Automatic annotation (TrEMBL):
SUPFAM superfamilies: S-adenosyl-L-methionine-dependent methyltransferases. This is Ribosomal RNA small subunit methyltransferase A. SMART domains: rADc. Belongs to the class I-like SAM-binding methyltransferase superfamily. rRNA adenine N(6)-methyltransferase family. RsmA subfamily. S-adenosyl-L-methionine binds at N26, L28, G53, E74, D99, N121. The lineage of its organism: Bacteria, Pseudomonadati, Thermodesulfobacteriota, Desulfobulbia, Desulfobulbales. GO terms for molecular function: 16S rRNA (adenine(1518)-N(6)/adenine(1519)-N(6))-dimethyltransferase activity; RNA binding.
Amino acid sequence: MSRYGRFAHDALKNNQLTPKKRFGQNFLVHRETAEAIVRAGKVTASDTIVEVGVGLGALTLPLAAAANHVYGYEIDSGIVRFHEQQKDLPENVTLIHQDILKADFNEIVQKCGAGLKILANLPYSISNPFIFKLIDNAHLIKSATIMLQKEVADRLSAEVNTKDYGVPTILLASVATVDRKLTLKPAEFHPRPKVDSVVITIDFTGGPKQTGPYDYTLFKHIVRSTFNQRRKTVINTLSRANLFGVTHKEDKKTNKELAHRALTDAGIAPSARPETLLFSDFVRLAVCVEKLQKEAK
Ligand SMILES: C[S@@+](CC[C@H](N)C(=O)[O-])C[C@H]1O[C@@H](n2cnc3c(N)ncnc32)[C@H](O)[C@@H]1O
């Protein structure tokens, strides 16, 4: 066992801390790996970093050595108590006992300054809701370098027309670009997870080329409704997505006609399946649906 691994093991044992599955507690056991994640995040001496899930501090310490300041969020009161008793975190680390999913990103910006830089060995238990939180707060974030279960990273960086391509891929592509950095084996953690992990950097400054204005809420609704039934054709799901204010049963035909028009106006084959459509196709579709909605008023 590495020195880091022995440290994690002993720290947990001596403080009656059992790794909690519900908090996704798989602690890093190699210092070099933690340092590689900091390098992947391109952390510089002037950076203020937001770390999600401080744990025993495996990533926090190299982050604190490389950055100006680290605001570390941790949900587990046992771990927070451990750091308070040990006083082991450097002075430029502020430990915040809070569930990151409940945190207000505007308040985090007030603490950390504009353009958040986030690093995390992300607890697997929150990876999906956390990604959607990042998407919703994209305008406040510069980059997020995060470690995820490989299958989640595969979904976020999936190519069009593959089984992994879906709602998270498209919504993330609408605000950012994704770059895969490292693949880590289960032996990098204590306790060992069952699957490989991947570190990705999500760059919120390198989002898609300007597509012109479109209704983002409508775009999201269309993406979610079509992928809800990913085996069906887009004309099928779009006609049932309550887009055109036609609710009477007998007006099924009208819904289908309007959906057909929106799709052909957007240059999309009505018989297409959602996984064959690019982010830019969904944007064009949202623009055409909005135009028809306005005409119908
Ligand atoms: C995978 S461990 C990583 C710990 C440490 N950074 C490391 O690399 O060894 C995830 C950490 O996130 C914490 N955590 C889990 N859910 C959280 C949440 N919703 N908000 C803040 N921290 C959370 C866990 O208690 C745990 O310490």
